[in-house]
Protein backbone atom coordinates (compact mmCIF):
# COMPACT_ATOMS: atom_id res chain seq x y z
CA UNK A 1 0.00 0.00 0.00
CA UNK A 2 1.27 3.44 -0.92
CA UNK A 3 1.43 5.98 1.89
CA UNK A 4 1.68 9.77 2.01
CA UNK A 5 5.47 9.67 2.04
CA UNK A 6 5.47 7.51 -1.09
CA UNK A 7 3.02 9.95 -2.73
CA UNK A 8 5.22 12.93 -1.80
CA UNK A 9 8.28 11.20 -3.24
CA UNK A 10 6.44 10.10 -6.37
CA UNK A 11 5.21 13.67 -6.97
CA UNK A 12 8.80 14.95 -6.95
CA UNK A 13 9.87 12.00 -9.11
CA UNK A 14 7.16 12.94 -11.63
CA UNK A 15 8.34 16.56 -11.63
CA UNK A 16 11.93 15.56 -12.38
CA UNK A 17 11.52 12.39 -14.43
CA UNK A 18 7.89 12.33 -15.57
CA UNK A 19 7.34 11.21 -19.13
CA UNK A 20 10.75 9.59 -19.32
CA UNK A 21 11.86 6.00 -19.41
CA UNK A 22 12.47 6.31 -15.67
CA UNK A 23 8.77 5.61 -15.05
CA UNK A 24 9.11 2.27 -16.83
CA UNK A 25 12.21 1.50 -14.80
CA UNK A 26 10.27 2.14 -11.57
CA UNK A 27 7.44 -0.09 -12.79
CA UNK A 28 9.93 -2.83 -13.71
CA UNK A 29 11.68 -2.52 -10.34
CA UNK A 30 8.31 -2.64 -8.57
CA UNK A 31 7.45 -5.87 -10.35
CA UNK A 32 10.56 -7.62 -9.03
CA UNK A 33 11.13 -5.65 -5.81
CA UNK A 34 8.33 -3.45 -4.48
CA UNK A 35 10.61 -2.66 -1.54
CA UNK A 36 13.16 -0.96 -3.81
CA UNK A 37 10.40 1.10 -5.40
CA UNK A 38 9.30 2.26 -1.95
CA UNK A 39 12.88 3.00 -0.86
CA UNK A 40 13.37 5.06 -4.01
CA UNK A 41 10.21 7.14 -3.59
CA UNK A 42 10.22 7.45 0.18
CA UNK A 43 13.90 7.77 1.00
CA UNK A 44 15.49 9.27 -2.12
CA UNK A 45 12.70 11.54 -3.31
CA UNK A 46 10.61 12.25 -0.18
CA UNK A 47 13.51 12.50 2.27
CA UNK A 48 16.83 13.20 0.53
CA UNK A 49 15.73 15.22 -2.50
CA UNK A 50 13.09 17.14 -0.54
CA UNK A 51 15.72 18.46 1.89
CA UNK A 52 16.08 22.11 0.97
CA UNK A 53 19.64 22.64 2.23
CA UNK A 54 20.73 22.56 -1.41
CA UNK A 55 18.43 23.18 -4.35
CA UNK A 56 17.51 20.68 -7.06
CA UNK A 57 19.78 22.29 -9.64
CA UNK A 58 22.81 21.79 -7.42
CA UNK A 59 21.68 18.22 -6.70
CA UNK A 60 21.41 17.62 -10.43
CA UNK A 61 24.98 18.83 -11.02
CA UNK A 62 26.08 16.31 -8.40
CA UNK A 63 23.96 13.56 -9.97
CA UNK A 64 25.24 14.23 -13.48
CA UNK A 65 28.87 14.24 -12.34
CA UNK A 66 28.47 11.09 -10.26
CA UNK A 67 26.78 9.21 -13.08
CA UNK A 68 29.51 10.23 -15.52
CA UNK A 69 32.11 9.05 -12.99
CA UNK A 70 30.61 5.59 -12.61
CA UNK A 71 29.67 5.28 -16.28
CA UNK A 72 25.96 4.71 -15.58
CA UNK A 73 24.68 5.83 -18.98
CA UNK A 74 21.02 4.71 -18.69
CA UNK A 75 20.65 6.68 -15.46
CA UNK A 76 22.65 9.57 -16.92
CA UNK A 77 20.12 9.76 -19.77
CA UNK A 78 17.30 10.26 -17.25
CA UNK A 79 19.27 12.88 -15.34
CA UNK A 80 20.14 14.80 -18.51
CA UNK A 81 16.40 15.10 -19.13
CA UNK A 82 15.88 16.14 -15.51
CA UNK A 83 18.57 18.81 -15.86
CA UNK A 84 16.82 20.17 -18.94
CA UNK A 85 13.48 20.19 -17.09
CA UNK A 86 15.18 22.16 -14.32
CA UNK A 87 16.27 24.80 -16.83
CA UNK A 88 19.82 23.79 -17.72
CA UNK A 89 20.82 24.37 -21.34
CA UNK A 90 22.49 21.69 -23.45
CA UNK A 91 25.69 23.77 -23.28
CA UNK A 92 25.56 23.81 -19.47
CA UNK A 93 25.02 20.03 -19.35
CA UNK A 94 27.93 19.61 -21.76
CA UNK A 95 30.18 21.72 -19.55
CA UNK A 96 29.18 19.77 -16.42
CA UNK A 97 30.13 16.56 -18.24
CA UNK A 98 33.39 18.03 -19.58
CA UNK A 99 34.35 19.23 -16.11
CA UNK A 100 34.71 15.57 -15.11
CA UNK A 101 37.47 14.82 -17.62
CA UNK A 102 40.37 15.53 -15.25
CA UNK A 103 39.05 13.32 -12.45
CA UNK A 104 37.25 10.47 -14.23
CA UNK A 105 39.08 10.41 -17.56
CA UNK A 106 38.47 10.72 -21.26
CA UNK A 107 36.60 7.44 -21.94
CA UNK A 108 33.78 8.10 -19.49
CA UNK A 109 33.45 11.73 -20.54
CA UNK A 110 33.45 10.79 -24.23
CA UNK A 111 30.74 8.18 -23.60
CA UNK A 112 28.65 10.73 -21.69
CA UNK A 113 29.08 13.33 -24.44
CA UNK A 114 28.05 10.77 -27.07
CA UNK A 115 24.92 10.11 -25.03
CA UNK A 116 24.22 13.85 -24.87
CA UNK A 117 24.76 14.08 -28.64
CA UNK A 118 22.29 11.24 -29.15
CA UNK A 119 19.68 12.97 -27.00
CA UNK A 120 20.11 16.22 -28.90
CA UNK A 121 20.20 14.75 -32.42
CA UNK A 122 18.10 11.59 -32.40
CA UNK A 123 15.53 12.53 -29.81
CA UNK A 124 15.03 16.10 -30.94
CA UNK A 125 15.76 17.78 -27.63
CA UNK A 126 16.36 21.48 -28.14
CA UNK A 127 19.26 23.48 -26.77
CA UNK A 128 17.68 24.10 -23.38
CA UNK A 129 15.05 26.07 -21.56
CA UNK A 130 16.94 29.23 -20.64
Keywords:
76% helix, AhpD-like, single chain, 130 residues, 8 helices, globular, mainly alpha
Question: What do these coordinates show?
Answer:
This protein has helices at 4-17, 21-32, 34-48, 56-70, 73-85, 90-98, 101-104, 106-122. The protein is mainly alpha-helical and 130 residues long. The chain has 2 domains: 4-48; 56-122, AhpD-like (Up-down Bundle), CATH 1.20.1290.10. The N and C termini lie far apart (40 Å).
Question: TL;DR?
Answer:
This protein has helices at residues 4-17, 21-32, 34-48, 56-70, 73-85, 90-98, 101-104, 106-122. The protein has eight helices and no strands.
Blueprint (SSEs and pairs):
Elements: H1 4-17, H2 21-32, H3 34-48, H4 56-70, H5 73-85, H6 90-98, H7 101-104, H8 106-122
The CATH topology of the largest domain: AhpD-like
CATH architecture label name of the largest domain: Up-down Bundle
N-to-C span: 40 Å
Parts with pLDDT < 50 across at least 5 consecutive residues:
none
* Mean of all residue-level pLDDT scores: 89
Tally of helical runs: 8
Helix-strand sequence: HHHHHHHH
Oligomer: single chain
Report the strand count.
0
Q: Report the sheet-strand fraction.
A: under 5%
Query: Strand count, sense and closure of the main sheet?
Result: none
What is the CATH C level class of the largest domain, in words?
Mainly Alpha
The structural class is mainly alpha
> Helicity, in percent?
over 70%
Amino acid sequence: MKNNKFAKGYALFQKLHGGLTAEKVVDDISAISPELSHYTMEWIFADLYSNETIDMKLREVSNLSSLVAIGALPQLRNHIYSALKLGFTIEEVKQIILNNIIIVGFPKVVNALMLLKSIVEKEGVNSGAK
